[in-house]
From TrEMBL, chain A:
This is Transketolase C-terminal domain-containing protein. Pfam families: Transket_pyr, Transketolase_C. PANTHER family: HYPOTHETICAL TRANSKETOLASE FAMILY PROTEIN, PYRUVATE DEHYDROGENASE E1 COMPONENT. Signal peptide: none annotated. InterPro entries: PDH/Transketolase, THDP-binding, Transketo_C/PFOR_II, Transketolase-like_Pyr-bd, Transketolase_C. Residues 24-186 form the Transketolase-like pyrimidine-binding domain.
TrEMBL record, chain B:
One of its GO terms (molecular function) is magnesium ion binding. The keyword Transmembrane helix does not apply. Transmembrane segments: none annotated. This is Transketolase. Coiled coil: none annotated. The keyword Transcription does not apply. Keywords: Plasmid, Thiamine pyrophosphate. Belongs to the transketolase family. It comes from the Bacteria. Its cofactor is thiamine diphosphate. Residues 26-258 form the Transketolase N-terminal domain. InterPro entries: THDP-binding, Transketolase_N.
Length: 331, 278
């Protein structure tokens, strides 16, 4: 699949400045935002588990940086202790290691106590690419969605990632902020109205609704909507950047106002966005839901993120196919 | 506590044990062995070491205490009741439906900082609190009471390595070294010795003490923290089921539901042993 981008009206200087500002991977943008925050709030702590790069970034703020080493259980436990005693820890690890290796510490120490720990993870979904299945986290959203008190955020690009980090800083409870590994194309060409728990409507439509979470799934949903529009099918596109608490109102509105919902995620088709949307629609009434995501298997193919998603069946073409079925226009 | 009177502590430890037995006589029983081995440690910590305020459990300058071996909750509740954190009568509700006093402690009980029970969490939590105290310039120290069997959890050693590396000299781990875990002795199940050497190798200051000698415990704890920029571990040699002859140093004492008859016998044994020891 070719590089995904959004059609845009570029006004040269502004566009260039925006591109430059958000040129890096989301995790780099979040690190920069965290450093700025830490300079204004001495309670903020950057807690590292040897993820690389943070040590240099925080060289000027040694009092607000602590590396616990490659020890994720201790990372979460210590962060909970720090938060209980009045600090605001932002812990850093890979999504898979937060979700499964340190799962119990997240459950009992962080989420169970409703402590203001911010778990900032990279390598969410299949973004670890060729690193292989040990580093993939196609189950992270499902696991984190089961944690009481935990807010689960999945920004679609660097612009949202920055907003999500800033929003998490002032959030009263624990937050799981899921980022990818590498740079992904920007979804937003201007500041977005990011609010925790509120889906962003990226395109209006009344035939079908595409609900997506994660950078490539959102981009693919937009591309599918464009293809559908060319065929006269109007697709609403919701960027569900908050998996928990889910914007149930937006889902129910989609269920009432369109003929069906296609969910798109870089996550297993069980437990994550698709699961959450199905729960709401099944319980509260609505429409058919088709889920696009990673099949129920260990992804052991070697490949980059887009290659893996394509082989998992997460593609704009498939999204459009499912949407056509729901719209009743499939041949 | 000023001018700590060992006699007062001994009285209190005795009442704590009586109350632990009461909880063990409830319909759900209790982890008697590990509660009784920890009874003197908890009594000395709360009676003469920890700077805590029952009238204001969230006092920001308090010392932190984490019962990492959460299954010894009966002893903790008894001690919290002795010091007025919770009403004494509430101990009668232990493990009953709707009670706050679960088999493993809940955070909504005054004086309980963290819910514990899944082993291997407490040292990380205490280390985090200790680090926060240092960062925020507070005088707080953090104490975690660990079971010896608990030391088989890998996360304990993650925390041990981290605390030493970061020089958390306001952190104290206390190990209730009663030698037993549910299926046998620690040395049969997964050996811990040479335990003091292991902690030293992890960069900790090590103190070894008789965990039932109140004077020795007092002397040990009041000499802390270690000034060498290191966290300290107190390896307290204890006896599982201590104080109740029919439970002492026995595998079977791990979890016990005392019938009314056994409860009477246990209380009599406790009193006899106390008179003999005095």
């Amino acid at each position: 699949m070719t590089e995904l981008t959004i059609a845009q009206e570029a006004t040269a200087d502004e566009e260039l400045a925006w591109e430059e500002r958000y040129a890096g991977p989301s995790r780099d943008i979040c690190r920069r935002a965290l450093l700025d925050l830490a300079r204004t709030d001495p309670r903020i702590m950057c807690v590292d588990s040897d993820v690389g790069g943070l040590e240099n970034l925080f060289a000027d703020l040694p009092e607000q940086y602590v590396n616990v080493g490659i020890a994720e259980a201790n990372l979460m436990g210590m962060a909970a202790g720090m938060a209980a005693a009045g600090l605001v820890p932002f812990v850093h690890t890979l999504s898979g290691f937060a979700a499964t290796r340190a799962c119990e510490q997240v459950k009992v120490d962080v989420a169970g106590n409703n402590l203001p720990v911010r778990i900032v993870v990279s390598h969410g979904g299949l973004s670890a690419g060729h690193y292989g299945p040990t580093h993939h986290a196609a189950d992270d959203l499902g696991i984190m969605r089961l944690m009481p008190n935990l807010t689960v955020l999945v920004p679609a690009d660097a612009v949202e990632a920055e907003q999500a980090l800033l929003a998490s800083a002032g959030h009263p409870g624990p937050v799981f902020l899921r980022l990818g590994r590498s740079r992904t194309p920007l979804v937003h060409r201007q500041p977005c109205d990011f609010r925790i728990g509120r889906a962003l409507t990226l395109a209006d439509g009344d035939d079908v609704t595409l609900v997506a979470t994660g950078p490539y799934p959102v981009l693919m949903a937009l591309r599918a909507a464009e293809a559908l529009a060319a065929e006269g099918i109007s697709a609403r596109v919701l960027n569900m950047h908050t998996i928990k608490p889910l914007d149930e109102e937006a889902v129910l509105r989609a269920a009432a106002e369109t003929r069906g919902i296609v969910t798109v995620e870089d996550h297993l088709v069980v437990g994550g966005l698709g699961g959450a949307v199905c729960e709401v629609v099944a319980a509260r009434g609505g429409c058919p839901v088709r889920r696009i995501g990673v099949p129920d298997r260990f992804t052991d193919r070697v490949g980059g993120e887009l290659d893996l998603l394509e082989h998992a069946g997460v593609t704009p073409e498939r999204i459009a196919d499912e949407a056509r079925l729901l719209a009743g226009t499939a041949s | 506590m000023t001018g700590t009177d060992i006699g007062v502590l001994a009285e209190r430890a005795h009442r704590v044990r009586e109350r632990v037995l009461e909880m063990g006589a409830g319909e759900n029983g209790a982890h008697l062995g590990g509660s009784l081995s920890a009874a003197d440690l908890l009594t000395v910590l709360y009676g003469a070491v920890l700077r805590v305020r029952p009238d204001r459990p969230d006092w920001p300058d308090r010392d932190w205490f984490v019962l990492s071996k959460g299954h010894a909750s009966a002893a903790l509740y008894a001690v919290l009741a002795e010091h007025g954190f919770i009403p004494s009568e509430e101990c009668a509700d232990y493990a009953k439906p709707g009670s706050r006093l679960a088999g493993h402690p809940l955070r909504r009980v005054e004086g309980v900082e963290f819910p514990t029970g899944s082993l291997g969490h407490g040292l990380s939590l205490a280390a985090g609190a200790a680090l926060a105290a240092r960062r925020l310039g507070r005088p707080s120290r953090a104490f975690a009471l660990l079971g010896d069997g608990e030391l088989q959890e890998g996360s304990v050693w993650e925390a041990a390595m981290g605390a030493a590396h970061h020089g958390l000299d306001n952190l104290v781990a206390v190990v209730d070294r009663n030698g037993w875990q549910i299926s046998g002795t620690t040395e049969e199940c997964l050996s811990l010795e040479p335990l003091a050497d292991r902690w030293r190798a992890f960069g900790w200051a090590v103190r070894e003490v008789d965990g039932h000698d109140l004077s020795a415990l007092l002397a040990t704890f009041t000499a802390l923290p270690d000034t060498g920029g290191r966290p300290t571990v107190v390896l307290a040699r204890t006896v599982k089921g201590r104080g109740v002859p029919m439970l002492e140093d026995r595998k079977k004492s791990h979890y016990v539901q005392l019938t009314p008859k056994l409860h009477v016998r246990a209380l009599a044994g406790l009193r006899n042993r106390r008179e003999r020891d005095q």
